[in-house]
Each structure stands twice: as C-alpha cells, then as structure tokens.
Amino acid sequence: MDDVKIGEILLPGDPDTQKEREETVRSKFWPKMKRVVSKVPFARDAAAAYYCAVDPSTPLRAKGILLAALGYFIMPIDVVPDVLAVIGFTDDIAVLTAALAMIRAHIKMEHYDAADLALEKMREE
C-alpha cells in the first residue's frame, strides 16, 4: 500500500512509520494544547482523539487517521495561521472533524473521560 503524505505525517504506512508518527504526536500535542487550550473550541475532541490514537486497542488504520489529523493540528505551518484567534483553527477543526467521522466506532467514552480530566488539570495550572 502506498503512503499518502499529509504535512509531515504519512498515512497509512507501515508499523514503523506509524510508530514515528505516534512519537511525534506524543511529544508535540500537549505542549501545543497548553498554548491554545483557551482559544480552541474543539479542545475536548482533540484530546479525546489523542487518547484514542495512543490507545493500544485502537486499530492501526484508525490510529493512522487520527495521527494524521493531530499531526496537522501540531504543525507549525498551517493553511490558516492559528494566530488569527478562533478563525485560525477552522482548518484544524475541519480536519479533526473529518477524522473523527471516519473512526467514530473506535473512539470511546473513556477517551473523552481522559480528555476531560487532562483538560481540567491543564486549566487549573
């Protein structure tokens, strides 16, 4: 199967590529989220997508889709710059919404529960 490049993330790829994507998202997702949590109306969905993507029980294809969407969110260069307040995140929400629609059967309430807890702690800091 051929890889499709979305930003710096390849989709769907082999397990080694998948592992690299996951490491990139793991290292950059939370620092980005901490910077923008008060500005993004989709923080809960993004955090739940993160937890679903790193969940060992999530199928490889669903992980690949989520990691590509989260990779787009954490990319420093964006189609619509994130510095433009809420409007800057419209492309990010579109990509994330499309990804969540494709993997809907794999995102669980426990992913949202973990997201809620993480975001609550982040907002308290």
Automatic annotation (TrEMBL):
Keywords, alphabetical: Membrane, Transmembrane, Transmembrane helix
GO CC terms: endomembrane system
Pfam families: DUF1232
Tree of life domain: Bacteria
Sequence intervals crossing the membrane: none
Record's bilayer topology term: Multi-pass membrane protein
Location of the protein in the cell: Endomembrane system
Domain called DUF1232: residue spans: 62-97
Name of the protein in question: DUF1232 domain-containing protein
Source organism of this protein record: Rhizobium rhizogenes (Agrobacterium rhizogenes)
